[in-house]
Amino acid sequence: MKNLFPLQTGSKIKITVRSRLIGADTFTVIAGPCTIENYEDLLEIALELKKRNICFLRGGAYKLRTSPYSFPGLGITGLEILKRVCAETGLISVSEITSAEDVSLFSDLVDIIQIGTRNMHNYRLLEKLGDISNPVILKRGLSSTIEEWLYAAEHILKAGNPNVILCERGIRTFETYTRNTLDISAIPAVRNLSNLPVIIDPSHSSGRRELIRPLSWAAAAAGADGIIMETHFRPDKVICDSEQTIDLTTFDQIYSGFPELIALWQKHIQE
Ligand code: PEP
Ligand code: MN
Fold first, then answer.
1. Is residue 154 part of a domain?
2. CATH (domain of 187)
3. Cα(143) to centroid of ligand 2, in Å?
4. Residue 117: which of 137, 99, 142 has the closest Cα?
5. Has this prediction a pTM greater than 0.90?
6. d(C-alpha 113, C-alpha 134), whole Å
């Protein structure tokens, strides 16, 4: 059969960012707020994560909101807050880029650059990421097939950046109870088709905090290389995506279940 994704062949790749590994035999946990609101809150979240040995902090600064009246994020001020908090805590930052014009800015201020679901098809933006070497989390487009998603990854790889992490964040279906539908089958499918790490976003896929634990655990048992979860010490008070943001107690419950599930998966692949 013709190889559709020539740059995604061979053994599973490992991505190194500030001496931390993503992919291969690691399970990466990324947590933090949907949106950066201010320095004090982000620092508090970062310190709580650090206490738990979490190394990756997410936080949006440029938010693509469905309504033009919703909070759009703090922009560059938000990125500067993220940079400062990560410098002070040693955490590794993750934030979403929304425009090709911002690539060099992001490359300086952010460790891992996220492409959100709405930009998966923005090929000029994807190609521009070939100019830098920061790892890129490429979210699956909300109505994209697995093939389209892997082609989008191929655009970044072909442009010269080999550090791509795929992120399944739910696809749009007829179901309205959940915000989107988490496609668990994408994990084993992508593992067969690509050598890139694949992580899961249970927050944007479900839109419901009570579903984050079972979805995260299902993803870990299905062979995901990691998880990105919206987490806050006071989720009811956040400006953006409160309903899907978990508190630290829930985070601890979820996190404590991972070793057993990952071990189950590891055992399964060795058989
Ligand atoms: C996000 O992670 O902040 C986000 C907006 O995600 P998505 O692009 O998957 O909706
Ligand atoms: Mn969000």
1. yes
2. 3.20.20.70
3. 18
4. 142
5. yes
6. 7
